[in-house]
C-alpha cells in the first residue's frame, strides 16, 4: 500500500491534480478517446469498434455466425501496416466477458463499502489526496450511503441479468473495449462517494447514519424514484430482448420511438445518481457527470451502429420515426 500510495502521489504531482480531478479526467479522456475512434475510416472502424450482432453481415450467412477471421486477416501481399492492424484487431475476448464488468462493479462496491465503514488504508490513500476545495464542498453521510447502495444494486441487477438473460454466443470484442469497461466500473465505485471525502474524513460512519429519521430532501424525493424507474424499465427491456428470437426486430412499446431504450435508461440511471450525489451547495456531482458523459458517448455510438444494422437487415422503414437514444435530440 505504501508503494501504491507513492505511485499515486507521483502521478498526481506530475499532472498537478488532486484525486477527484484525476478521476474526472479519466472519464473525460475515455470519452474523448471513444469520440476519436468513432471517426476512424471504415476499414479501421470495422476492425476495432463494431462487435457482436452489429459485426455480422446480412447476406446468406447465418446471422449468428461469428465474424470470419479472414475478414481481418492479412494476405501475404498485405503491407506491414495492414498486418500490424490485423494483428491488433485479432486481440479479442469473448463477448461474454461483459459479465466481468458487473462482477468487478459488485466486488468494488463491497470493497469500498468496507473501506468506508472501517476508514481503511485504501480509503485514506484516496481521501487524503483530495484538495481542500473539494473537501469543503462535501456530500453528507446519508448521500454517500444512498449512492453507494444504488451503485451496488445497479451492479447486482446487471450481474443477475448477465447470468439469466444470456445465450451462448461466439461473438467477440476487442480487448481494449473490455479493459476500458473494467476501468469504468472500478472508477464508478469510487465516484459515487469520492466527493463525500471531506465528511468521511471528519467523522466515521455509525449505525445511526443508516436510519431514516428525517424526511428525504426534495432532491432525493425526485432523483431516487427516477433511478428506480429507469432501473425497472431497463430490466424490462433486457428481459424482452432476451425473449426475442435471435436478431429480430423489437416491437415492445419501449422500442416504438427509440432504437435502444435500455441505453436511454442507462443514461437516466447515471444522471439520477449525479443529482443524488451533488455535494452541499452544488446542483450536480461533477465526477458522476463526467462518468455520464462517457456512458452517453459510448452507448450513443453503439446505438448508431445498431441502427445501421437494423436498416441493413430490416430496411430503412424499420427505423422511421425512431430516435436513437435521447428523444427529441438524438
From TrEMBL:
Pathway: Protein modification; protein glycosylation. It catalyses: a di-trans,poly-cis-dolichal + NADP(+) = a di-trans,poly-cis-polyprenal + NADPH + H(+). It is an enzyme of class 1 (oxidoreductase). It holds the Pfam family Steroid_dh. It comes from the Eukaryota. GO terms for molecular function: 3-oxo-5-alpha-steroid 4-dehydrogenase activity; polyprenal reductase activity; polyprenol reductase activity. One of its GO terms (biological process) is polyprenol catabolic process. It is a multi-pass membrane protein. Residues 56-80 are annotated as: Disordered. Keywords: Endoplasmic reticulum, Membrane, NADP, Oxidoreductase, Transmembrane, Transmembrane helix. It is found in: Endomembrane system; Endoplasmic reticulum membrane. GO terms for cellular component: endoplasmic reticulum membrane. Its main location: membrane. Residues 213-330 form the 3-oxo-5-alpha-steroid 4-dehydrogenase C-terminal domain. Belongs to the steroid 5-alpha reductase family. Polyprenal reductase subfamily. This is Polyprenal reductase. It comes from Aspergillus uvarum CBS 121591. The lineage of its organism: Eukaryota, Fungi, Dikarya, Ascomycota, Pezizomycotina.
Amino acid at each position: 500500500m505504501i508503494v501504491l500510495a507513492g505511485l499515486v502521489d507521483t502521478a498526481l504531482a506530475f499532472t498537478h491534480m488532486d484525486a477527484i480531478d484525476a478521476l474526472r479526467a479519466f472519464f473525460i479522456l475515455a470519452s474523448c478517446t471513444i469520440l476519436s475512434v468513432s471517426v476512424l475510416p471504415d476499414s479501421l472502424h470495422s476492425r476495432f469498434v463494431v462487435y457482436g450482432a452489429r459485426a455480422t453481415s446480412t447476406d446468406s450467412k447465418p446471422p449468428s455466425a461469428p465474424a470470419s477471421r479472414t475478414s481481418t486477416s492479412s494476405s501475404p501481399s498485405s503491407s506491414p501496416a495492414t498486418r500490424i492492424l490485423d494483428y491488433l484487431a485479432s486481440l479479442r475476448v469473448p463477448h461474454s466477458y461483459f459479465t466481468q464488468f458487473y462482477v468487478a462493479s459488485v466486488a468494488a462496491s463491497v470493497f469500498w463499502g468496507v473501506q468506508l465503514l472501517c476508514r481503511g488504508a485504501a480509503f485514506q490513500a484516496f481521501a487524503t489526496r483530495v484538495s481542500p476545495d473539494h473537501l469543503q464542498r462535501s456530500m453528507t453521510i446519508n448521500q454517500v450511503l444512498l449512492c453507494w447502495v444504488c451503485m451496488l444494486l445497479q451492479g447486482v441487477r446487471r450481474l443477475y441479468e448477465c447470468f439469466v438473460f444470456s445465450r451462448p454466443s461466439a461473438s467477440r470484442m476487442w480487448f481494449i473495449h473490455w479493459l476500458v469497461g473494467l476501468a469504468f466500473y472500478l472508477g464508478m465505485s469510487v465516484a459515487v462517494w469520492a466527493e463525500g471525502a471531506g465528511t468521511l474524513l471528519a467523522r466515521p460512519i455509525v449505525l445511526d447514519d443508516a436510519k431514516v429519521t428525517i424526511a428525504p430532501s426534495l432532491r432525493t424525493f425526485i432523483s431516487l424514484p427516477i433511478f428506480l424507474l429507469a432501473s425497472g424499465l431497463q430490466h424490462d427491456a433486457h428481459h424482452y430482448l432476451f425473449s426475442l428470437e435471435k436478431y429480430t426486430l423489437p416491437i415492445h412499446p419501449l422500442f416504438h420511438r427509440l432504437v435502444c431504450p435500455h441505453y436511454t435508461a442507462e443514461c437516466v440511471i447515471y444522471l439520477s445518481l449525479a443529482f443524488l450525489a451533488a455535494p452541499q451547495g452544488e446542483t450536480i456531482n461533477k465526477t458522476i457527470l463526467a462518468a455520464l458523459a462517457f456512458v452517453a458517448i459510448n452507448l450513443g455510438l453503439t446505438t448508431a451502429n445498431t441502427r445501421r444494422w437494423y436498416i441493413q437487415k430490416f430496411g430503412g422503414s424499420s427505423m422511421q420515426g425512431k430516435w436513437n437514444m435521447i428523444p427529441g435530440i438524438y
